Amino acid sequence: EVQLVESGGGLIKPGGSLRLSCAASGFTFANAWMSWVRQAPGKGLEWVGRIKGKIDGGKTDYAAPVKGRFTISRDDSKNTVYLQMNTLETDDAAVYYCTTGSTVREDYSVHWGQGLLVTVSS
Amino acid sequence: DIQMTQSPSTLSASVGDTVTITCRASQEIGTWLAWYQQKPGKAPKLLIYAASRLQSGVPSRFSGSGSGAEFPLTISSLQPDDFATYYCQQYNSDLGVGFGQGTRVEIK
Questions:
Q1: Which of A80, A103, A105, B71 is most buried by a 10 A CB count?
Q2: What percent of chain B is predicted at pLDDT more than 70?
Q3: Do A44 and B87 touch (CB under 8 A)?
């Protein structure tokens, strides 16, 4: 069974940094594409970015609002993907979901974590 | 980036109805289109990928179609469990991955 368990959320001041983690199990992690999707309170879904698996060169892509501030990385030895968020803005406040297609190497999300709340407020 | 627009934003229907939600892309995207269902406080659930392929385990009353820029999602014989919010997603990263704004299906 695929499991994605996010950690690291919380309250952070505008301008601050936060790193989210997502521990994965139940599939071959090294080749899996791992994505982050967020949802501001009462709003719709927003794709944040994705890191491809080893077989696809580990390429990252990001949505325009976070490009240059957020970085996705992975540690295949720990089956974990990270979202480093810098220079946080109030508009970054959201529930952040870790997602994957596991064996599907495309940018839609078959499996989702439970979500992690990030609050950006002074 | 491509803009994805869903219509309607809210849809009122009764159990047993057949309903259709439409997703339109601001430019052609082939069949790089997925549909998700989300219930309050829960993570979304994948229903359809490649515009018309039903994800494993999803009831056959859900069907997707279309290619290019217009994509309908049809729910036949609406069940109580289907009242939720539905999102389309364009997932060709060369064009910019993005979601529609969502369609809430509520009980009439």
A1: B71
A2: 100
A3: yes
